[in-house]
């Protein structure tokens, strides 16, 4: 592990830098480490390597051939609409869902063959509530310390450190049921941190929180990361969070990764595609070179918490799907505006995003998560 100055904000750039090519559809992700065998034997292993990862629930292909590598020390964001397969991928990496040998490695350990070794390296904050409302904050963290086999000698100090890291020392002796949504998320973070993980996995860590609580959660994540060099793998619906806090992101849709790179690389690649499209001869729009749909409106400032851009496109019985504007390649809509990450997503995911993202189960589970912390 590397040690940085804990007082300094975490760097936006991953400590381990290797040239990355932003993905351009329809090719496979161009990330240099998508192929683990490309790493030299002497190179330190990636924090996470997935090779052709797939997982199905019956007929539903939740994850459908994902190749990605998360580098040690980076904050890696897995983005996508409801039902994209983010949680399933995360659960495969945590070993909670079984996968065949060779598909997932965590710091070089195979998730199928070395399950316990993988688990010892992980801290995991699931979408579902993992804190016990009837216990105090401290008791909740102590419970996790025991479950994760923190030695009895170290336990009290580690629990105190974890609570301190998320600014819950003062509230530690209160029952968790008296905590606000933001405090519960921070408590869950303390639970995950108590085992001093090398890889922290967070599934929608800020869903349902107000903007201030969201920022606070991220500040704590970043402070711990800066102090310990831990790697963070996070799923989120919030594009703005990904832009601000993630070194690299993978955009996931229908079980597959559609784009992978730094937010800047992905935006630049879209800018270049739009420029090429603008130079091309006029033709009816059939390619994903320009966004087929107008951008999702930004959430209303009056809303208690920002609406995830993706969930607003979930199917609704009363809202018909938006109609694509008729457009040509020589006049892509908003081609001169600076593209956002959401534009990139719409570009690579195409028209399926609005109409078919997330079924009832997916939307319901997101809403449940949001309401239980809200
Ligand atoms: N336990 C399950 N049984 C059956 N199907 C499931 C189960 N869990 C997930 N799925 C399906 O697998 C697909 C991927 O779901 P997953 O929860 O991984 O997506 P997600 O991107 O994490 O979505 P969300 O943002 O809503 O959490 C969806 O079609 C979902 O309905």
TrEMBL record:
<dbReference type="Pfam" id="PF00005">
    <property type="entry name" value="ABC_tran"/>
</dbReference>
<feature type="compositionally biased region" description="Low complexity">
    <location>
        <begin position="278"/>
        <end position="288"/>
    </location>
</feature>
<feature type="region of interest" description="Disordered">
    <location>
        <begin position="1"/>
        <end position="45"/>
    </location>
</feature>
<dbReference type="InterPro" id="IPR003439">
    <property type="entry name" value="ABC_transporter-like_ATP-bd"/>
</dbReference>
<dbReference type="InterPro" id="IPR003593">
    <property type="entry name" value="AAA+_ATPase"/>
</dbReference>
<protein>
    <recommendedName>
        <fullName>ABC transporter domain-containing protein</fullName>
    </recommendedName>
</protein>
<dbReference type="InterPro" id="IPR017871">
    <property type="entry name" value="ABC_transporter-like_CS"/>
</dbReference>
<keyword id="KW-0067">ATP-binding</keyword>
<feature type="compositionally biased region" description="Low complexity">
    <location>
        <begin position="35"/>
        <end position="45"/>
    </location>
</feature>
<feature type="region of interest" description="Disordered">
    <location>
        <begin position="278"/>
        <end position="374"/>
    </location>
</feature>
<keyword id="KW-0547">Nucleotide-binding</keyword>
<dbReference type="InterPro" id="IPR027417">
    <property type="entry name" value="P-loop_NTPase"/>
</dbReference>
<feature type="domain" description="ABC transporter">
    <location>
        <begin position="48"/>
        <end position="279"/>
    </location>
</feature>
<feature type="compositionally biased region" description="Low complexity">
    <location>
        <begin position="325"/>
        <end position="335"/>
    </location>
</feature>
<feature type="compositionally biased region" description="Pro residues">
    <location>
        <begin position="289"/>
        <end position="309"/>
    </location>
</feature>
């Amino acid at each position: 592990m590397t040690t940085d100055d804990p007082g300094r904000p975490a760097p936006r750039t991953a400590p381990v830098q290797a040239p990355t090519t932003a993905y351009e559809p329809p090719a496979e992700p161009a990330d240099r480490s998508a192929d683990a065998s490309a790493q030299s034997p002497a190179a330190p292993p990636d924090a996470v390597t997935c090779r052709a990862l797939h997982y199905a629930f019956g007929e539903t292909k939740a994850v459908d051939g994902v190749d990605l590598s998360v580098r040690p020390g980076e904050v890696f964001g897995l983005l996508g609409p409801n039902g994209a397969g983010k949680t399933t991928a995360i659960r495969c990496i945590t070993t909670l869902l079984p996968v065949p040998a060779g598909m997932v490695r965590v710091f070089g350990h195979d998730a199928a063959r070395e399950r316990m070794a993988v688990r010892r390296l992980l801290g995991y904050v699931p979408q579902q509530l993992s804190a016990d409302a009837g216990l105090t904050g401290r008791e909740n963290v102590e419970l996790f310390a025991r479950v994760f086999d923190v030695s009895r000698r170290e336990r009290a100090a580690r629990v105190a450190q974890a609570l301190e890291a998320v600014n819950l020392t003062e509230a530690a002796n209160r029952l968790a049921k008296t905590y606000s949504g933001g405090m519960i998320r921070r408590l869950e973070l303390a639970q995950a941190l108590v085992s001093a993980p090398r890889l922290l996995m967070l599934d929608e860590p800020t869903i349902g929180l107000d903007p201030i609580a969201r920022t606070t959660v991220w500040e704590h994540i970043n402070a711990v990361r800066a102090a310990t060099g831990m790697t963070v793998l996070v799923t989120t619906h919030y594009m703005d969070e990904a832009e601000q806090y993630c070194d690299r992101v993978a955009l996931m849709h229908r079980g597959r990764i559609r784009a992978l790179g730094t937010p800047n690389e992905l935006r630049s690649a879209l800018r270049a595609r739009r420029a090429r499209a603008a130079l091309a001869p006029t033709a009816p729009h059939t390619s994903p070179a320009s966004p087929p749909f107008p951008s999702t409106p930004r959430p209303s400032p009056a809303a208690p918490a920002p609406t995830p851009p993706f969930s607003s496109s979930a199917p609704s019985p009363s809202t018909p799907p938006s109609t694509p504007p008729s457009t040509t390649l020589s006049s892509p809509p908003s081609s001169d505006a600076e593209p956002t990450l959401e534009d990139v997503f719409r570009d690579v995911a195409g028209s399926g995003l609005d109409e078919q993202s997330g079924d009832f189960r997916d939307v319901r589970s997101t809403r449940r998560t949001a309401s239980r912390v809200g």
